[in-house]
Write a structure and sequence with these properties.
About 30% of the residues lie in helices and about 10% in strands. With about 375 residues, the chain is α+β, with helices and mostly antiparallel strands. The strands form 2 sheets. Strands 1, 2, 3, 4, 5, 10 and 11 form a 7-stranded antiparallel sheet that branches. The protein has a 4-stranded antiparallel sheet with strand order 6-7-8-9, with no helix packed on it. The termini are far apart. The N terminus is likely disordered.
Length: about 375
């Protein structure tokens, strides 16, 4: 069994069994075997021919597979672009998911097809052998440069690109179309509204019919609703340690649903009122230990949705910014530079949680028109 798994001995290469490392120890101070001063360069291993080198049929099949992979990449890229225009991005959650799925699959399959085709071409179609090129520390002479240029020309010829126009066209088409699923949506959004002042206000301050509750002083407040069910939340339903993902009630009926939701999402938490650290001017922003903060991280806008019940910390999963719920969501760790904006809340005459007003500061990360 041992001889069967043993590699054949090649001329010029020392067998491991022939090399004995000298050692000196306390029992045998003299070396047991003399070590050669240098080992001869064994050279490159013998280049074994591939099936595609000896069989023209196998070579043709390999070329067809490469062509199929490039074609698959082209079709996937085209499909992603068509899907972007064909699937409407309305308030239907299914359409958003389908559009995202089509774009993702188009990008993934498109780039995978290019990579797989390039690897298979190199392994099965291109001329395959190992070559050694010595590096020189100084500039080469003109003759050496000419040899290097000729080697590059030979490499292009050996790849077979010039002799295979169909594959050459497939490469060009796949490489040209693969970036389109990224570029087309990007270019298509260049004409959108870039008015950053809209981030200073959300629909929490609006109270259309059927979405508000009445406070004891007679004012209106938009009700807090579960996301995505859009059902209002009673204060009695929020127990200590519980967390609710919140949206303004009636948000699903808004025309600009996704834009408004991106600004209005809130995380609602209830803690023991005795551990809250509130400034006097914010004493009425919470209700019996229930506090509400924007879910949009003040670093780069990721959703802050991980709550550590024991430490009362909110964690952003993107860059680990950490906010203390009991201390006005101040930053205790990470790259964020300011606390999460707090949504002032109260309870209406029916026991539902409502927003007393909009956020008192812009939500999300800092941008060029803000001082901090």
């Amino acid at each position: 069994m041992g001889d069967r798994n043993r590699r054949p001995h090649r001329p010029g290469r020392l067998d491991r069994s022939e090399v004995v490392v000298s050692s000196i120890d306390q029992y045998n101070p003299a070396p047991t075997t003399e070590v050669p001063e240098r080992f001869e360069n064994p050279g490159l291993e013998e280049n074994l021919p591939r099936l595609t080198d000896a069989d023209s049929g196998a070579r043709k099949r390999a070329e067809r597979l490469v062509l199929i992979l490039f074609t698959l990449s082209i079709l996937a890229s085209i499909g992603a672009v068509v899907g972007y225009f064909a699937i409407p991005l309305d308030n239907t959650l299914g359409n958003v998911r389908l559009s995202t799925l089509v774009l993702g699959l188009g990008l993934g399959i498109g780039f995978f097809g290019i990579g797989a085709a390039a690897i298979h071409w190199a392994k099965a179609v291109m001329f395959y052998y190992e070559r050694i090129e010595l590096r020189h520390p100084t500039e080469s002479d003109p003759e050496t440069k000419q040899v290097a240029a000729q080697m590059m020309i030979d490499g292009v010829n050996e790849s077979g690109i010039a002799r295979r126009p169909v594959l050459k066209g497939a490469i060009a088409g796949a490489a040209a179309l693969a970036p389109l699923p990224i570029l087309v949506p990007l270019i298509g959004n260049l004409g959108d509204d870039w008015d950053v002042s809209k981030f200073k206000h959300t629909i929490w301050g609006e109270t259309p019919e059927g979405t508000y509750g009445t406070l004891p002083d007679g004012s209106r407040g938009r009700r807090l609703a579960r996301d995505p069910e859009d059902t209002p939340i009673k204060a009695s339903d929020v127990t200590i340690g519980s967390v609710f993902h919140v949206i303004p009630q009636g948000l699903n009926d808004e025309e600009d649903f996704y834009e408004e939701k991106a600004k209005s999402v809130v995380l609602l938490v209830r803690v023991d009122p005795r551990v809250l650290k509130e400034r006097p001017e914010r004493a009425d922003w919470s209700y019996d230990g229930i506090v509400a903060y924007s879910k949009i991280c003040t670093h780069v806008g990721c959703p802050v949705a991980l709550y550590e019940q024991q430490t009362h910390h909110l964690l952003c999963p993107c860059h680990q910014s950490t906010f203390d719920v009991t201390d006005e969501a101040k930053v205790v760790f990470g790259p964020a530079k300011r606390p999460l904006p707090q949504l002032p809340i109260a309870v209406d005459d029916e026991g539902y949680l409502v927003a007393r007003s909009d956020f008192t500061e812009p939500i999300g990360p800092s941008y060029w028109e803000r001082l901090k």
